[in-house]
Amino acid sequence: MNKILPIMLAAIALTAGLWFARQQNTTTQMEISGFAFPSPKQLADIELIDQNSQPFNEDLFKDKWTFIYVGYTFCPDACPMTLTILDQLYKKLADGDQLRDDVAMMLVSIDPHRDTPERLNSYVAHFNDSFVGATGEPAKLKSFANQVSAIYSVPDDKSDPNYLVDHSSSIILIDPNAAVHAIFTPPQQAEDLAKDFAVIRDRHS
Q: Using one digit for the tens of pLDDT, what is the confidence trace for 10-60?
């Protein structure tokens, strides 16, 4: 059941994203491993805290492309696997001269009960010391997750220190206007993501 639920959540997240795209007319006709929005969804009223205990709001997304994964540091499989893929993507973009100074990789933890800024700092640095980590109050996290079409469920009973948090596994791309530009659905591969990003970036410029 623990393995089935994340798949179900991912499917729900994909359906929700596609519904939103249809409300905006239709998804763009791009051959990518996910979908891009014809009218990117502007982020607003973001109130998170980064891994250095500094406020993180939507303005900090501006003027760069940000790949976001919504998860948590105690995640046993999907999160470390996806952050490894993001590290591979980061290096591929550097090799292909797409990295520049305007690409960021970010983990947003939806488990603030355990994921303090200090823990996030060491966790994201384990994968790449340029990665950003962020978390926040439960209500603020829920608002952020809703805006990026991420779904998760934190258990009410946290007496077990190793409790699991079910969550969707999409990678969200925020554009330089601080808007949700694309969502990459699993399974994800760094090479495919790099190609998809090149297409998106060319069309955006």
A: 444 444 444 444 444 444 445 688 999 999 999 999 999 999 999 999 999
As a whole number of angstroms, the distance between CA 184 and CA 178 comes to 17
Count: domains in the chain: 1
Q: Is the peptide bond before 112 cis (omega within 30 degrees of 0)?
A: no
What is the span of the domain harbouring residue 177? 4-204
List pLDDT tens digits, range 142-151: 999 999 999 9
26: DSSP letter: -
What CATH number should be reported for the domain holding residue 105?
3.40.30.10
Directed axis angle between helix 78-95 and helix 190-204, to 10°? Answer: 60
> Can you tell me which residue has the tokens 């999160």?
79
β-strands 132-135, 103-109 pairing: parallel
